[in-house]
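User: I'm writing a short report section on ligand binding and want a predicted complex to refer to. Could you take this sequence and zinc ion and write out the structure as tokens? A short remark afterwards would be nice.
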Amino acid sequence: MAVPDELMEILRCIECHSQLDQRDAELVCRECGLHFPVEGDIPVMLPESSYRPEGP
Ligand SMILES: [Zn+2]
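Assistant: Sure. The structure tokens for the complex follow:
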């Protein structure tokens, strides 16, 4: 499972508008650490789907 590079270049964090890194089955914001799930190679860029892992 992978999000195409072209899409990764376009996608931005919905909170801080920074670029995202692909990490396992999720996209992670480089700046604020917000996580976005990827379902069937399609990133879900919705406020209600995004989250920040709690704790260290
Ligand atoms: Zn962000």
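A remark for your report: Residues 13, 15-16, 18, 29, 31-32, 34 surround zinc ion (CB under 6 Å). The chain has one domain: 1-56.
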